[in-house]
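User: Second chain of the day. Same drill as before.
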Amino acid sequence: MTSEAIDIFTTGGTIDKVYFDALSEYQVGPTAVADILAENNVRCEHRVTQLMRKDSLELTDEDRAAIRAAVEKSQADRILITHGTDTMIETARELGNIAGKTIVLTGALQPATLKHSDAEFNIGFALAAVQSLPPGVYVAMNGRIFDPATARKDRAAGRFVDNGG
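Assistant: Same format as last time:
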């Protein structure tokens, strides 16, 4: 049995980084997703669950197993996952053989708390994608939908690309 609600699982990453002035650095903080959705008057039924607060470079195999377990356990057939961009593709590939669910991963190259962040756009874009794509696993970044089997992050360009370019 599936639910009409969209499950949104947050894992941390740049999208949820906040500046800790006393430390003069960014750290992953509480998720910004619920606030972003409320501030933008999003009315589709959804549940936000913070699974972890980690930079994606710190994610372990156990963390990816926990993300997978949350997706498999969810009664929703549409899942949005916010994730750090550095290892988003690896996590998406780990979710690749979950049948019957539309799973979309997204993140941001700048923290949601910054004025010029891509976070709000990417979350909105991913929310639309998860509602319209057929079952499968996708990465929604930079206004494009990527197949994790053929995509990669181009760190130098600051965007995602297909392996072909």
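Residues 17 and 28 are 4 Å apart (CA to CA).

User: Great, on to the next one.
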